[in-house]
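Page 37, top half.
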Amino acid sequence: MTAAGATPKRLLALQLVPGRVLEVDTADGRVRTLVEDAGDAPDGVVAVDGAVYWTTMGAPDVDPGTPGEDGYDFSRRNGGIHSWSPGGPRRDLVPAGAMTTGKQLTSDGAGALYWCDREGHRISRVRTDGSSLTDLVVTPAAEGVTGECVGIAVDLVRGHLYWTQKGPAKGGRGRILRAGLEIPAGQSAEHRTDVEVLWDHLPEPIDLHLDGDTLYWTDRGAAPDGNTLNRAPLPGPGGSGTPPEVLASGFAEAIGLAIDTAAGLAYVADLGGHIREVPLPDGPAAGRAPREVAALGTPLTGLCLP
């Protein structure tokens, strides 16, 4: 059941392998496939004006002798951004080879999409018609995994961009950063002076969601602080973030995140194939226990409410 008084919603979720775009009913967990062939390793998804947009990480080079994630090399420049509208075909929004590893994707609500390119060490923007492809942040290659960008949120009103750099797996070196939506005059995506580190030494922060003055994020790092859903108030200019409030824990590699502010509910997808609904402690569903919306038995990544 959904929270008392709440209207059942449908989530868009990404299945990692084989890549699919799914629609999940939050009331009964029923799943419908919207896009059967979403490409190699889809990761971030957003819906804008009836259309669905998503990133793909691309096909990795696999080392069969190395166990776990370390055996997958996503450094080839074969990621992408794709779109689909009901009744139409899937299309590619950016040209092949324009990005390396597409991660979380978001919209500013004004016709632009923003995403993180993990192995590409950058944050980029494009119009929903595929025009004006622009890099906004490029981190030094020398930073290695600590400079890889993953989750993203946009504040169009205040002109800010937020993103995560998860750091090494289970490494406790994750960060959340902020910069302006536009590159300062006379500077470049590689060299800009307005980048602020808001949180440091987080377990392994992944996807972001901005709701007013509150930032939410998933974390797939080591317990007890990792594999959690977190939130914290936005710090003021020049300030640092306060210790986050942990809203839920015990996920199986938490990735995707969607917030239903009106219903007071958060939704988290994980690589274990679960989607969990978490009532927010100050919302209309406060006091209810978290519940499992769906268990698909296959890894899930990006999540959004259309």
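Page 37, bottom half:
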Amino acid sequence: MPRPTGRVLTLLELLQSGGTRTVAELADRLGVEGRTVRRYVDQLIDIDVPVESVRGRYGGYRLAPGYRLPPLMFSEDEALAVLLGLVAGRRAGWATTDRTANETASAKIRRVLPQHVARRLDLLLETLAFTDLPGEFATPDAGVLLTLADAVRHRRPVSIRYTDRDGRRSERTLHAYGIVAHAGRWYVTGKAARIGEDRTFRLDRIADARTLPGSFETPVGPSPAQRVLSGFATAEYQHEVTLRIHGTVEQIRAHLPASVASLEEHEPAAGRDRAAKRWLRVELRAERLDWLPPVLASLDRPFIIERPDELRDLVIALADRLASSARQA
């Protein structure tokens, strides 16, 4: 249950959103009685917040015109949410600025917190453990990210200076459809205007972005996230793998997500359950094959390897090792 101080802050936020709020409305939003609302209003007035009482049928409370809250005013729950978000974002690689900006933002929030709240949050962060390793991904430039977001929102072409994975630099014009966060990295996907084909770019490899005159229409089709995942699944790698697996889409996707493999789905026959098990064609590309045999074993579903033969040999070798280990006393 929220503490009284937290309810007073919530009352202030409701009044700050504008308009006149009736006592009944405020009581309902805060989960208290009308007389408690009046007591909270008195507490705000005591700390020089100009709350005005409005009489009449539609009366209630409002803030005096022109009043603005201080720059930071967090409840205990809000402060916890912000600080945990900064910590988790840094660990997962979702940060869009360097580590220093993340740490200074955390420090600024802690400085304005009451001492007892800051102490409790510090205790939580000291006892918090993560099962994954900290993200070590390069972070995109904040200015680039904001420029691309504006271009996506207003459907404006954007010029980017990009360095590909081989170190080649180029300047490209992009019709950006959306920005996607995936596996600790940020991507922008859209149509490369010069070649007229869809492309996906890593934001941390974009050195500069400038909005250009003109506009474009976003095509109907897959969402930006689906375009990025599909791009990963069909990217050029050393090995092209084709399988047939007997199972449901859900069973296969649990081990081979859309970012790894594409599925050739068929509409079920009339009256047949879409979730029914059937043979599905699975295609993927991989730089190495040694990770695939354990994945196929974990599926626990019948499968047929169409190509390559090297994968078939690796699966047989894994099966022989497992059988040999199982026979040992």
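Margin note: The chain has a mean pLDDT of 81.
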